[in-house]
Structures are given as structure tokens and as C-alpha cells.
């Protein structure tokens, strides 16, 4: 039995509180994970996990062993990584979670990253619904504004603001609106809120003026990139993060409306599980993301990063829904 591997499997089962979720995160069969933990228990002569069809919890011995595993496993990973770095090679599998719109912006740069690190395999999961990184075995994620798990560490990498823009053809031959109040909602394409068919409101502010517009165009989409491409080819206005329309604004395919009005800002956070040691594969990918966004809007270093536990988050969500608050912009 490979005791180091068995220790890693046991730690993942304990962190996921599930054999099946641990197996999924490790790309193993459920039976393989079960057998691995059973063999470890037989080797140690103790029961580490009490389980039935519905519940799984650590025994006293399991709690002690998990604590030691969390201390030892990073040391072994660090030793391997230091030797690999000295050899000039960073290898292994890297699992990354990205929002859809951000992933589409990063993909054109991935061939260069893979050229630099040919021994590294990168698996990217695109999702706008934050997943629990440890349970899924995810090494690194990018989230917007807040971190939903106190076991995570976040680092701001880029800030962006919402801008309203449209194809020049939309107002060809006539004056463009001077204020968001003059926008025709039926000429505005909406971005759907996550998991709903209701578009997000467009919110504007200028000195003491505030305008809220609900887009009601004939097309609603949950993809920022699809909105942009539709606006370029059609005669509609859109409201998206400036990070994603820098190129079409520069080429004139889109023009910005109401630059003197302010919109909400979003900050992208680079998120990793808490650890004493950050592996080289995570570090090089994080540095690569920072390199990509180096020419973008800098993050607001004075902003507070919200960190909350899942339990508190669920309670807060129930309270928000009961109060009838509007959904957050994505």
C-alpha cells in the first residue's frame, strides 16, 4: 500500500465529507477510494471514519490523523515541487474554475502558457456558479467581489466597471441619447441573472441623479460574449463590463454611451484554498493571469474582500429573498 497516497485519499474524503465527491475530485472510481481508506484503516488498526448510507464523520483517531495529514502532505508536495523547479520543469494537472466571460477572454492566451509549460495539463471548468474548491479538487478559481468560504484565500487581480455601448449603426443619421433616461428599453439587450430568465437592471448615477433601466429588447442572453457579438452585428445597446469590450471600443465596432455617468464596479479575485505551501503550478498560472490583466484596470486595493461561510451565506440569502432585494449583477 502506498501510505502517502492513502493519506491523501483519506484527507480528501474527510474534507469532502463524502466518498463519492472525493472520488470525483480525484478522478477515481468510488470503489477505489473506499478500498484505499479501508486498507489504511487496516494498516493503522483503527477506524478513521464512521459511515452509513447518509452520514460520514471522523472518529477521534480520524480527527488526529487528519490533522497530521494536513501538516505532512504539503511538506511532501513542497519537496517534490522544489526538486522539479530545480530541474526546470513544472508538471502535473492543474484544475481551474473561471466565470464564462473571463474564460473566453483568457483562452486566446492559453497556447502561450502551455508553450511555456509543456509538461503541465490544465483543466478549466467554466461556470458562473461558485463551486466548493476543496470538494471538487480545484486548485485555483476566479470569483467576483466576494469569497464564499472562509477556508479560501483571495487576491484581487483586476477591477472593471459597467459601460453602456452600441453599434454606431444604431444611431446613424440621428443624435445619440444624452442621458440613460432617453434610452429606449426595447433597443437594449439584457444579460440574464444566474439561473433566471429575468435581465439585470442597468443602474446609473451622476451627482444627485439616479437612473435604473430594465432592458426589454427582443433577446435576453446569459453570456456576455454573445451579447457583445449580437450588439456589434445588430442595432441594440448593451451594458457589460468594460474589460470585455476594450477591443471593439478601440476598433470602433462599438461606441460608449454616457461616459460621464458612473456605473457599478466589479473586482475579480484570484482564489485558492488556504495552504502553507503554494505549489509552483498554481503560482505560475496565477502569475500568468496577472500578466494578462496587467494592462487592464488595476484592482481597488482599498476594497474589502467579503469572506463568509456557506452556512452564514445561506441564512443571509434567505433573509435577502424574504426582504425582496434585487439580485446581484453578474
CATH class of the largest domain: Alpha Beta
* CATH topology (fold) name of the largest domain: D-Maltodextrin-Binding Protein, domain 2
How many beta strands in the DSSP annotation?
Answer: 15
Distance between the termini: 47 Å
For the biggest sheet, the summary is: 7 strands, mixed
| N-to-C series of helices and strands | HHHEEHEHHEHEEEEEEEHEHEEHEH
Number of domains: 3
Q: How many helical stretches?
A: 11
Radius of gyration: 24 Å
Mean pLDDT: 81
- CATH level-4 homologous superfamily of the largest domain: Periplasmic binding protein-like II
Shape call: elongated
What helical percentage do the residues reach?
Answer: 25-40%
Strand content: 15-25%
Low-confidence segments:
297-330
Describe this structure in words.
- The chain has 330 residues and is an alpha/beta fold.
- It folds into three domains: 3-86, Orthogonal Bundle (Arc Repressor Mutant, subunit A); 92-159 and 268-323, D-Maltodextrin-Binding Protein, domain 2 (3-Layer(aba) Sandwich); 160-265, D-Maltodextrin-Binding Protein, domain 2 (3-Layer(aba) Sandwich).
- The protein contains eleven helices and 15 strands.
- The strands form five sheets. Strands 3, 4, 5, 7, 12, 13 and 14 form a seven-stranded mixed β-sheet that branches.
- Strand 1 (49-51) and strand 2 (56-58) form a beta hairpin.
- The two termini are 47 Å apart.
- The model is unreliable at 297-330 (pLDDT under 50).
Amino acid at each position: 500500500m502506498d501510505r502517502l497516497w492513502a493519506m491523501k485519499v483519506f484527507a480528501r474524503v474527510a474534507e469532502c465529507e463524502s466518498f463519492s465527491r472525493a472520488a470525483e475530485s480525484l478522478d477515481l472510481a468510488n470503489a477505489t477510494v473506499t478500498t484505499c481508506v479501508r486498507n489504511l484503516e487496516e494498516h493503522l488498526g483503527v477506524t478513521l471514519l464512521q459511515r452509513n448510507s447518509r452520514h460520514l464523520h471522523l472518529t477521534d483517531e480520524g480527527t488526529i490523523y487528519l490533522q497530521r495529514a494536513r501538516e505532512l502532505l504539503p511538506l511532501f508536495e513542497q519537496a517534490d515541487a522544489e526538486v522539479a523547479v530545480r530541474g526546470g520543469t513544472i508538471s502535473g494537472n492543474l484544475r481551474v474554475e473561471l466565470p464564462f466571460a473571463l474564460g473566453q477572454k483568457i483562452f486566446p492566451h492559453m497556447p502561450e502558457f502551455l508553450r511555456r509549460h509543456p509538461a503541465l495539463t490544465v483543466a478549466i471548468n467554466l461556470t458562473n456558479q461558485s463551486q466548493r474548491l476543496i470538494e471538487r479538487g480545484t486548485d485555483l478559481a476566479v470569483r467576483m467581489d466576494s469569497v464564499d468560504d472562509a477556508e479560501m484565500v483571495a487576491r484581487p487581480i483586476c477591477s472593471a466597471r459597467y459601460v453602456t455601448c452600441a453599434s454606431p449603426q444604431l444611431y446613424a443619421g440621428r443624435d445619440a441619447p444624452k442621458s440613460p433616461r432617453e434610452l429606449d428599453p426595447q433597443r437594449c439587450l439584457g444579460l440574464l441573472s444566474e439561473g433566471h430568465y429575468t435581465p439585470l437592471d442597468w443602474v446609473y448615477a451622476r451627482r444627485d441623479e439616479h437612473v435604473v433601466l430594465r432592458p426589454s429588447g427582443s433577446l435576453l442572453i446569459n453570456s456576455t460574449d454573445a451579447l457583445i457579438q449580437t450588439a456589434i452585428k445588430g442595432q441594440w445597446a448593451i451594458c457589460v463590463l468594460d474589460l470585455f469590450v476594450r477591443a471593439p471600443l478601440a476598433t470602433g465596432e462599438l461606441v460608449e454611451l454616457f461616459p460621464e455617468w458612473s456605473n457599478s464596479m466589479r473586482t475579480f479575485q484570484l482564489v485558492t484554498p488556504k495552504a502553507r505551501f503554494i505549489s509552483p503550478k498554481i503560482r505560475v498560472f496565477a502569475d500568468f493571469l496577472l500578466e494578462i490583466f496587467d494592462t487592464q484596470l488595476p484592482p481597488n486595493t482599498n476594497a474589502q474582500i467579503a469572506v463568509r461561510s456557506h452556512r452564514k451565506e445561506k441564512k443571509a440569502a434567505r433573509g435577502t429573498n424574504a426582504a425582496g432585494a434585487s439580485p446581484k449583477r453578474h
